[in-house]
Write a structure and sequence with these properties.
α10 links the parallel β4 (about 185-190) and β5 (about 220-225). Strands 1, 2, 3, 4, 5, 6, 7 and 8 form an 8-stranded mixed sheet that branches. The model is unreliable at about 10-30, about 40-45 and about 230-235 (pLDDT under 50). This protein folds into 2 domains: about 5-80, no CATH class; about 80-290, 3-Layer(aba) Sandwich (Rossmann fold), CATH 3.40.50.150. It has about 290 residues and is of the alpha/beta class. Helix content is about 40%, strand content about 15%.
């Protein structure tokens, strides 16, 4: 098995093992807070690590909790390129939304599975373009609570607690209706989230429901982990699997001179694709597409 495939497997095995150690034993992991150690020793449930908190930590943010940093450090010890992957993925989001806003006239965005609104997330990436509105969506109560504290006082931006697998709840939410006009083109963002959706939840059917709910001229930006080996969490998908998420959309060329397709996340919108093709960026495939 190639080295990168092996390390990708170990990342998610590490994530699961770390959770079990913290929740089921009195063994102290380096960096664990005294409160979490006391909770573990008492046999109670320790707060679960949040992918959003880990992601913020990889990006150099300050919004993570001790449990997020413990598990993130374990992952990094097996796979140092995960930090590069996080930055490459955030760079893709920034380039995609800026292009939607500045070049394609999109002024409203729904960022599903957004994580924390930190480290130049969507509302900051489009700040230079007047009149943009953003609705962040996440199903993690920790993200909802802390994210709304971070966004206090930020105009034309909201964060709602909802699940990607329930499109009607997201699109019909009062805050979504307040900020987003579904009779006008929308930028749908599903960045680094679809690999958490199992086949039993019919991810392609979910994508089709979102596609059908927005008007012509809307855009979809999506990135997904791609593995070459079978793992249980998150869902491993191939490049053709990810390409099928864009059924009914017209994929745009990822950079000048390229054919319309999904590419490694660092390549999308890159001025110098050769320089952007880092090992970390190959962990994700990404694409942007327009609804005809």
């Amino acid at each position: 098995m190639p080295r990168l495939a092996r390390t990708r497997q170990r990342v998610w095995h590490t994530f699961r093992i770390a959770e079990l150690v913290i929740r089921r034993s009195s063994v102290r992991l380096v960096g664990m807070s005294d409160a979490d150690v006391a909770t573990a020793e008492a046999g109670a449930v320790v707060p679960r690590p949040s992918p959003a908190g880990m992601y913020d930590y990889y990006l150099g943010g300050a919004a993570s909790r001790p449990i997020d940093r413990v598990v993130a450090d374990q992952v990094t010890s097996f796979m140092p390129e995960v930090i590069d992957a996080a930055w490459a993925n955030r760079g893709f989001l920034q380039r995609a939304v800026r292009r939607m806003a500045a070049e394609w006239g999109i002024r409203q965005f729904i960022d599903i599975g957004s994580g924390l609104p930190t480290q130049r997330n969507t509302h900051e990436a489009v700040r230079e373009v007047p009149g943009c509105r953003v609705v962040y969506v996440d199903h993690d109560p920790y993200v909802f609570e802390l994210g709304n504290e971070i966004l206090a006082g930020v105009a034309d931006t909201a964060l709602i607690l909802a699940d990607l697998r329930r499109p009607e709840e997201i699109l019909g939410h009062p805050r979504t209706r307040e900020l987003i006009d579904l009779d006008r083109p929308v930028g749908l963002l599903m960045v680094a989230v679809t690999h958490f959706v199992t086949e039993e939840d019919d991810p392609r059917g979910l994508l089709a429901r979102y596609r059908d709910a927005v008007v012509s001229g809307s855009y979809l930006a999506l990135s997904c982990l791609v593995f070459t080996a079978t793992v249980s969490v998150p869902v491993a998908r191939t490049k053709p699997d990810i390409r099928r998420f864009f059924a009914g959309w017209e994929i745009v060329p990822p950079y000048d001179g390229a054919e319309p397709d999904v590419v490694h996340v660092g390549l999308w919108g890159a001025e110098d694709p050769a320089m952007a093709d880092s090992e970390g960026s190959r962990i994700f495939f990404a694409g942007v597409a327009r609804k005809p």
